[in-house]
Structure formats: C-alpha cells, structure tokens
Design brief:
The protein has about 425 residues and is mainly α. It has a 3-stranded antiparallel sheet with strand order 2-1-3, covered by helices on one side. Helix 4 packs parallel to helix 6 and helix 19 runs antiparallel to helix 20. The N and C termini lie far apart (about 105 Å).
C-alpha cells in the first residue's frame, strides 16, 4: 500500500512539472509576440506550481515574469512590480550562484533606472518653476519608482518623501519617512571628487576607480573623498513637519521628542519644537524652547527678537526691551527690533492713558499725566525713526510716526511723513 502511494505521489509531481513547463512555454511564446497580457496570464498560472520547482525552472519563471511586467520598457508598466520581479530574479541567482539571466536583466533594470531618474529630475525642475502641487507629485512618484527598481539607492526614497511634502501629499511623505527611519537610513555617503584639468571645474565620479582612472590618464587632478553628512536628523524634522501641517501637533511632538533623544544637541529640532508649541498656542512652552535655543546658539538675533515678542505678550516690558536690544546688538539693521522697542516703550503709557480717561474733569491732573504720556512718546520716537530709515516702505511704521508727530506737535515732520503715507497707499 505504501509503495502504491509513493508511485501515485510521483505521478502527481510529474504532472505538476509538465504543467509548469507548459505555462512557461506559453509565456515565452506570448512574449515573442509582444502579447504581454497572455504572457502575464501564463506566468500567473505557473506561479502556484513553482514552489517545488528546480533551480533552472524557478530562474526561468522569475525571468519571464519580469519580462511580462516590463513590457519592452513600456512607460506605463508598474515600476514597483517590475523592480520587485527583476530584483527577485537577481537575488535568487545570487543565492544559487547560477547567474544565467542576471546580466540581461541587469542591463534592462539599469536602463529603466536611468530613464526614470532622469524624468524625475526633469519633472522636479519643472515643479520648482511652476510651484504646482501636481508637478511635485509627478516627480515624487518617479523618485519612488527609482527606489522600487533599485532598493539599494535609498536616497531616491528620501527624495520622494521630500517632494511628496512639497506637493502637500502629507500621507505619502509620512509613509516614506517612516520607512526610512525603519531602515535606519542615514544618507551618509562618500563622494569621489576631482578637478577636471581642461575646465578647472570639480567633477563627481560614481566610484573611486573611475576617479583614479581619470587622474592616471592626466585628465583630472586633486582627487579627494568627501563625506556627506547624515540626513537622519532632517528626516525627524521633515516627518514632524508633515504631521504638524496635517494639524496633528501631538504626533509631531512625539516625532520631535524621538529626534531630540537621538540628537540632543540639535538646534534645528529644538526650533521646530518651539514652532510646534507656538502653532498649538502654548506660548509659555514656545518661550521656554526659544530660551533653550539661545543657550545653544547665543549669537542668533531672531531668537532674542522672538523671546522679546513673547515677553511683550506676557507684559514683561523691560525684559522685552532687553531682548530687542540684544537682537540689534547682533544685527544692527534689524528694523523690526527697533520698531518693537518703540512699541514696548509706548506700552508703558497704557496705564497713564487709563488714568487720564478717569481724570477728564481734573484738568491739572490730566495735563500732568499727558506730559508724562508725551515724554514716553519722545523716548519711543527715535526707535520708530530708525526703523523707518531701515524699512521706509512699511506703512505700519509710517502710520505710527504720523501719530507720534501729531501728538508731539511736530508739524513739519508730520507733513513730510503724510506725503510718504499717501504714496504707500497707492
């Protein structure tokens, strides 16, 4: 009985082999006739029978599957599936150490990679000019296709994630950035550079061997290797920005926290964290992060300026003025900082004006208070005039100067600034 079962099993195995071969022959015949639909149908029929096939049959199956998907380089072919099929064949032949089809498929694969990468770059250049979301998305999909064809070229996945963000497809961008993090992608690469003797310009070579050959032939000089910095910090930054732009500030903060735990001295991630708190309306946390950023980067004037703005919002007027003065010390032409010092000084007149409104019947007290008000205005005036000198097209500064000149009874100055105001209104 056992012997009979063995014979029966062998019979079924031989039938399976015949079925495999028939389907592969049908696929091969259809490919020669450029009938890719029939070829794909035959490949699909064979796929369920291929698990126990020998090496030769499996390799042929992967080869025919790739060609059926490739469709003689049809630009409408599914690049993801083509890349998967061709790479599956190459990996299989590498494992079995019998590279019958690898060279041929490698040529087709490289041809596709070059073509798609070139299209992606061209469409990205177009998108930069048009600023159209659709153009960015077209380029992003092509960068993603390059990665599908060549999973070793992870930088194209990085490109795709960024360009999807530019095209406002935040979900696609998030998916790819999360994939990059899961792959532990850093983007650190070695670039081979030498100076072309004829043009004097630097040329980047694909590998060290190519660079060394050009130097040996006397066509290039000054060969060197340059390291590209890690992109991982930027991936955390961009991923968080995607979530933030989707309105998910909680998730954005989670990503920033992960990034800062990996890059605790990152000024860029710290600023992003501050901005997310600002978008969420948490001004206290925003100010805390800016003050932390100042400790990391004490020579950045915009940090002092923004902390000054937060201090003004919290009615810490003297502290705000100190922050604005520090910003000007670092950036003497900081028009907004001069403007805000003027605004901070004028803010000191607010309680005086309130008291004046309560003293309308007490002329003596009113006049005394008004003298204090105007004294404050005189202290603020030079800062507004400096801001106007640095930014003469700001209608807000001009309007403030009109009010100050009128209150301080400066008719000549008032007449001059009114002319400026009328020209800016047009």
């Amino acid at each position: 009985m056992k012997k009979q079962l063995i014979i029966l099993s062998a019979f079924f195995i031989s039938m399976t082999v015949f079925a495999q071969n028939d389907e592969l022959k049908n696929a091969e015949k259809a490919l020669k006739a450029n009938d890719f639909a029939t070829a794909m149908s035959a490949v699909n029929q064979a796929e369920g029978l291929i698990a126990n096939a020998d090496q030769k049959t499996k390799a042929k199956f992967y080869y025919l599957k790739g060609l059926a998907l490739y469709q003689n380089g049809n630009p409408n072919a599914d690049m993801q599936k083509v890349g998967d099929a061709f790479n599956e064949l190459i990996n299989y032949e590498n494992q079995t150490n019998k590279p019958k089809y690898t060279a041929e498929v490698g040529v087709l694969l490289n041809k596709m990679i070059v073509a798609v990468a070139e299209n992606a770059s061209n469409n990205y250049s177009k998108a930069i000019e048009t600023k159209e979301d659709a153009d960015y998305l077209k380029a992003a999909k092509e960068f993603q296709q390059v990665y599908a064809l060549s999973p070793r070229d992870t930088s194209y996945l990085d490109n795709a994630a960024l360009v999807y963000y530019f095209g406002k497809d935040y979900d696609s961008s998030i998916k790819l950035y999360e994939e990059l993090l899961s792959l532990n992608y850093t983007g650190i690469t070695t670039v081979f550079v030498a100076t072309d003797k004829a043009s004097g310009e630097d040329v980047v070579y694909g590998d060290k061997k190519s660079m060394d050959l050009q130097v040996k032939l006397g066509l290039a000089q000054n060969p060197r290797e340059e390291k590209k910095e890690s992109r991982r910090e930027m991936i955390f930054k961009n991923l968080a920005q995607n979530y933030s732009d989707k309105g998910n500030n909680e998730k954005a903060m989670e990503i920033i926290a992960k990034g800062r735990s990996e890059f605790p001295k990152s000024y860029s991630l710290l600023i992003d964290e501050a901005n997310i708190y600002y978008k969420a309306g948490d001004n206290a946390k925003f100010k805390e992060r800016l003050e932390e950023a100042i400790r990391l980067n004490p020579t950045e004037p915009t940090l002092y300026y923004n902390v000054g703005v937060m201090n003004m919002d919290q009615k810490n007027i003297d502290e705000a003025i100190k922050n604005f003065e520090k910003a000007i010390e670092l950036k003497p032409d900081y028009a907004d900082a001069y403007n805000n010092i003027g605004a901070a000084i004028i803010e000191k007149a607010a309680p005086i004006i309130d008291e004046m409104n309560k003293s309308l019947a007490d002329f003596k007290k009113y006049d005394k208070l008004q003298a204090q008000q105007f004294d404050i205005y005189r202290k603020a005036l030079p800062y507004y005039e400096k801001a106007y000198g640095l930014n003469p097209k700001s209608i807000n500064i001009v309007q403030t100067l009109m009010g100050l000149y009128e209150n301080l009874d400066m008719p000549v100055k008032l007449k001059e600034i009114k002319v400026v105001y009328e020209s800016l209104k047009q």
